[in-house]
Amino acid sequence: MKNIIKIGLVSACVGLSLISCQSDLTSLNDDPKHPSVLPSENLLGTALYQASYYMDNPNVNFNNYRFFTQQWAETQYPDETQYNLITRNQPRNHFNRMYVYSLNNLKQAKANLKNEVETDDIRANKLATLEIEEIFIWENLVDTYGDIPYSEAFLPDEIITPKYDDAKTIYLDLVKRINDVIATVKPSVKGYTGDLVYSGDMTKWVKFANSIKLRLGMNLADVDPALSKTIVESAIAGGVISSEAEAYKFKYDGNTFSNPVFDNLVASNRNDFIPSEIVVNTMKNLSDPRMDVWFTKVSGVYKGGVFGELNDPYTNFSQLGDYFRSPTTASNLLSYAEVAFLKAEAAARNYSVGGTAEQLYATAVTASMTENGVSATAAAAYLVTNPYNAANWKQSIGVQAWIAMFNKGFASWNFTRRLDNPVLINPPKSNLSSVPYRMPYSDQEYVLNGANVNAAASKIGGDKATTKLFWDKF
C-alpha cells in the first residue's frame, strides 16, 4: 500500500517539510503482497473536504477570517478578537491545512490519474478539475499570506527549502493557468462524477474557474487598473457563476462530513460565538430583513456583542440562529452574490461587464436575499430604502458586500481590504497596531525554511498581520 502510506508520512511531517520530505523514506512503505494505489477521485475528495472545511471553519485555532472582518464576537475568550495570532498558532494551522491536506492530495491525484484507465476526454476533464481546485487553493494562500512558496513547492527530490515567490507573479501565473486549463475542458463530457461540489459538471467547473479569475482581476484594480480591466472583462466574457445553482458549494452529508459552523456551534457545545454589535447595529440601521433569518432576539431586540471585549454571559446576546446550525449546510465559498458584487464593483470602475453598477448592485443584493430565504417583496423594499450610491460607490458596494458575505469570512475579508468599507476600527485591547491585512507566516517556517521565510518577510516590509498585501494599495 505504498502510496497510501506515503501520504501518511507526508502528513506526519511539519512545516514546509510537509511538501519536501525525502523520497528515500518511501522505501519503508513497500508491501509486495498488498500493492495499492489510492484512486485520484478519493484524493480529490479529501482535498475538496479539507480545503472547504478549513477555509470555512470558524474555530479559533484556524483562519480567524470572521474576526478579521469583525462580524463575529466572542463572550468567553476574546484573544482572537483582540488579534492574538500567536497563542493558538493560527498561521501555522491554516498554512499546513492548505499545503499538506489540500494541495498535496491534489498533486498526488494528478500523479495517480496518469495510470488510471480513462478515455482521453474524461481524463482531460478530471485533470482540469484537479487543476482548477488547485488554483482555488493557491488563490486562498496568496491572498491570506502574500508571498508564499509556489514555483519550488512540492519538489522534494530537488528542493527541500523552497523560495517564496512574489505574490503578483503568482497572480499572473494563476490567471495563465486558468486560461490554459479552460481550453482543455470538454464541456459535453463528465469529469469526476463523485466530486462533492459539481458532480462532474464541467460547465460549472469552467464558470467557477472564470469566477476565480474575476476575483483575482478585481483584487488588482487599485495596483494595476489596466491589467485588472483586461482580466475581469476576459473572465466575464468566458462565463462566470450566474446563479446560486452554479455557486461553489462543498456538500456535507451530516455523517461522514459535517458543516464546520455546525461543528463549532452545536456539536462542540461552544457557547462563545455571537454576532458582533458592529454587524447587528449596521443591519438594524438599514432595516435588513436578513437579521430575522440569521440572529435570535434578546427581550425582543437584536443585541450584538462588543467586538474585542470579554462580554457578558452568552445568553444576554443575540445568537446565531438555526440557519447556521445544520450539519448538512454546504460551505458556500464562491457564491452567486459574491460574483454579482464583484461585477457591480467592476462596473463602478468603468469596466465592461454587461450592466451598470446600479443594476448589478441590485442583482447582488437580491441574490443575497434570495440565498438567505428573504422574499422578493422584502428584497425589493430593502433596495428602495438602500439604493446604490454612485457618488460613494466604495461605501455603497463595500458595506452591502460585507453584509452579504456574513459567514463567508474569506470573501468578506477581500471586499473590506480592497474597498476599505465598512471602516473597521482596531479594538482598544488589540495586540496589533491596526486591523489585520494578512496572516503572518507559519512559525514552523522559521525553523524549517528560515532563510527563505526571512527573505520574504523582509521583502514585503515585515512579517506582520498589519503589513498590507501588494494589491491592498489604500
Automatic annotation (TrEMBL):
Entry's transmembrane regions: none
Annotated Pfam families: SusD-like_2
Keyword Hydrolase part of the UniProt annotation: no
Keywords: Lipoprotein
InterPro entries the UniProt entry points to: SusD-like_2, TPR-like_helical_dom_sf
Gene3D superfamilies for this protein: 1.25.40.390
Record bears the keyword Lipoprotein: yes
Stated name of the protein: SusD/RagB family nutrient-binding outer membrane lipoprotein
Species: Chryseobacterium kwangjuense
